[in-house]
Amino acid sequence: MSRLSVRKTYKLYIGGAFPRSESGRSYPVTSAKGEFLANASLASRKDARDAVVAARKAFAGWSGATPYNRGQILYRVAEMLEGRRAQFADELGGGKRAALERVDAAIDRLVWYAGWSDKVAAVLGAANPVAGPYLNLSTPEPGGVIAIVAPADPLLGLVSVVAPAIVTGNTCVVVASESAPLPAITFSEVLATSDLPGGVVNVLTGRQAELAPWLAAHMDVNGLDLTGVADADLTLTCEQAAAENLKRVTRPVDEDWTADPGVGRMARFLETKTVWHPIGV
Amino acid sequence: MAIFEYAPAPESRDVVTLRSSYGLFINGEFVEGSGKPFKTVNPATEETLAEVAAATSDDVDRAVQAARKAFGVWSALPGSERAKYLFRIARIIQERARELAVLESLDNGKPIRESRDVDLPLVAAHFFYYAGWADKLQYAGFGRTGQGAPKPLGVAGQVIPWNFPLLMLAWKIAPALACGNTVVLKPAETTPLTALLFADICRQAELPPGVVNIVTGAGDTGAAVVAHPDVDKVAFTGSTEVGRIIARAVAGTGKKLTLELGGKAANIVFDDAAIDQAVEGVVNGIFFNQGHVCCAGSRLLVQESIHDELLDALKRRLATLRVGDPLDKNTDVGAINSAEQLAKIRRLSEIGESEGAERWSPACELPAKGFWFPPTLFTGVAQSHTVAREEIFGPVLSVLTFRTPAEAVEKANNTPYGLSAGVWTEKGSRILWMAERLRAGVVWANTFNKFDPASPFGGYKESGFGREGGLHGLEAYLDV
């Protein structure tokens, strides 16, 4: 007799915990071939707000952690992901070999970003030679809470937008790929077991068109990454809403996730702080 | 303490030749505007200085077309050639510095001592600085691999404020041109004259026509610049209120945007600070340029234990400030830029009183004509008071107190703005601890209101985004 499998309940990831949507709603997720996979949580405005609260609460601790510590934790995320290669390859579906390549690329991307934690300030900062007796230093600092609409690519795309946001000390709320949200929740399990403080990454599953405008308009969100938004009207709505508190906005892009990412994604959600002090005796 | 008697020491106006009317500067020529011309006045006397053309959206369109046409030529020039044009401009600015400084003080109302010793040297330095970048962009380290040097964006639409008319022009035009962009710039309605003199400098430098276009007018001219579909980049310095409108207008267009907006900076004085230096810094922080400074230290946070001592010293110092004729070389505080701005400062100050803060100004005789406001302090200010929250953009300082460094940080950051902050203490580790926690783009420690072309400037939060100055200032004008 074949054994009946024990299925996983896919929930949200907020503040380090895995709650269901407060709305009690869910939506069916199917494979590329149309087979039922699971019922994912259909997150609500309230869930989005809870996620922002969790991200704000985590910001002081995470941005105040040493870059070395943040790098260690991101590397730990890569380690945990490596241990679950097969699980993620299964969940991504499609050809086994191609799926494993995507998982490996995601792991390598995390390792790449982990190493940036204590180098980004040296690359993006500056000692400015001003015309006077002053020490003048510019350093990059995290902007705060970043709302991210993740791209359709469920794992490599997700990692490629989340890692650059958090490695520099930001915290984030991510709206997972709407059609393929399950790897994002399984990835949350990886995050939850990597010493990443709760609230640094919060993952919502559900409708982009419902969640993104709330996050774009939220007055305690500092940055907005619309990478995964495909609909031009939704982009416009979000950009306009983001103007209210002058969020830093990354517009949708069709990006090749296997290409060298450069420092752009880290730089976008960093602020440059310039400190002056007189030189004298 | 009695104020010293000074003999009048006015700077001569003769160095400036004012025309009775000015046109728009499009494609290297001065042309008529299609809108109803407006007058620009000397805020110190209310005398009309000149009549200035108003650009309609058709005029703006002509300017953008000229800039688009010039973009091909300008962006194709080797960086080293663009650099030489900018060096030329910098030199001509130095040669005509006195003329520009006097004109700036006439049109803006700022003391000649400031336009001569602060604005103009910084303007020339800014062009010198970015001239040097024009042929070194591939070394600016934007982390791009295998794609060659970063590229210019195209036509930049730039809208600037009235508080530092020529300096803001320099902050906008110098990096844009160095990176290979062409520009359409709209100066503020109340201070268009130095921008129009700058147009003449572009001609003397034989800058190719269309590389710099200047369209004068009010808010609707600025809106037309921002909204023009062939503008690739929008840069704005001004109020947060207008910044929001611009961000909304740019939404969905794909235009690159940088905004340098309002502020409500905290100037924090600890009990171990060098009091005399701190007093000078506080005065410079809020009374420099009549307080028409987005990064002005408009909130004084003083440690409770030295509140009385510091306030006494501050009041003594304020009593020696000389308010009056901007062209007098001894003047410390000039005229408020416009009747409208004066009304705003008065309104907010009245609210300050009605909400219960205590208002104080030194005895100070103000000229009968023109727009004037005395240096003003509010003490007993709570964080909830309007004068602690809203940007006044005038010579008005709100004084609050704190007990611990943590409380100072909490209060300093308790604002939607995040442009600048000041810290006064003799303890090095405390400076660094404070600087790390202040959410502001510029932190001045034991100094205030220092600017330099090599130093990035710009805000956190609702003070806008992007940086001007330094290597960081290039990013706004490149496809990175």
Automatic annotation (TrEMBL), chain A:
Matches recorded under SUPFAM superfamilies: ALDH-like (SSF53720)
MF GO annotations = oxidoreductase activity
**Pfam families per record:** Aldedh
Natural source organism? Nonomuraea maritima
The UniProt keyword set, sorted, is: Oxidoreductase
The cross-references to InterPro entries, in alphabetical order and at most eight, read: Ald_DH/histidinol_DH, Ald_DH_N, Aldehyde_DH_dom
Protein name per Swiss-Prot or TrEMBL: Aldehyde dehydrogenase family protein
Indicate the transmembrane segments per the record: none
- Alphabetized PANTHER family for the sequence: ALDEHYDE DEHYDROGENASE-RELATED
Residue ranges of domain Aldehyde dehydrogenase in the record: 29-250
Automatic annotation (TrEMBL), chain B:
Q: Which UniProt keywords apply?
A: Oxidoreductase
State the superkingdom: Bacteria
Q: Which SUPFAM superfamilies match?
A: ALDH-like
Q: Where is the active site?
A: 260
Give the matching PROSITE patterns. Answer: ALDEHYDE_DEHYDR_GLU
- In this protein, which residues make up the domain named Aldehyde dehydrogenase? 30-479
MF GO annotations: oxidoreductase activity, acting on the aldehyde or oxo group of donors, NAD or NADP as acceptor
Q: Which InterPro entries match?
A: Ald_DH/histidinol_DH (IPR016161), Ald_DH_C (IPR016163), Ald_DH_CS_GLU (IPR029510), Ald_DH_N (IPR016162), Aldehyde_DH_dom (IPR015590)
Family of this protein? Belongs to the aldehyde dehydrogenase family.
Q: Please identify the protein, giving its name as recorded.
A: Aldehyde dehydrogenase (NAD+)
Q: Which species is the source of this protein?
A: Nonomuraea maritima
